[in-house]
Amino acid sequence: MQEEEQVEGAALFSEITLNEQNNSGQSGAALLTDLGDGTTRVVISAPSPFENLQPAHIHSGTCENLGGVVYPLANVEGGSSDTVVAASFGDLAEGTFAINIHMSAEQSDVYTACGNI
User: Fold this and answer.
1) Which family does the entry's similarity section mention (predicted)?
2) Which CATH number characterizes residue 96's domain?
């Protein structure tokens, strides 16, 4: 996991870099925050040249070897998404997962940005 931090009296969090894929022009970051109750908040900020809703997911594997969807995330709309997933921060940090943004629901096989957790 990239840049994991603990601030005294605050939740554990990590910022993930989302790298452009397929010359999409889209990149950004995802902030994962431990909510302390076995859930994790995932906030995506990835300005998009596209006006449509973009599906986003946490997949098993890495950006280089992406597996299946493990946790669906809220669609990226206007470059942002905010979701609480039923996974502990520790499970996400210790596993092999990637956050992936798709071009659209119709073009879900076209990936626009991805970052390894």
Assistant:
1) Belongs to the Cu-Zn superoxide dismutase family.
2) 2.60.40.200
Q: Which residues contact 51 (CB under 8 A, 6 or more apart)?
A: none
d(CA 47, CA 77): 9
Residue 50's pLDDT is what? 85
Which range of residues forms the domain containing residue 96?
4-116
User: How many domains is the chain partitioned into structurally?
Assistant: 1
Closest C-alpha among 97, 92, 99 to residue 33: 92
DSSP line for the chain: --SEEE-TTS-EEEEEEEEE-TT-S--EEEEEEE-SSS-EEEEEE---S--S-EEEEEEEEETTEEEEEEEEEEEEBTTEEEEEESS-HHHHHHS-EEEEEES-STTTTSEEEEEE-
Residues 60-99 have pLDDT tens digits of 999 999 999 999 999 999 999 999 999 999 999 999 999 9
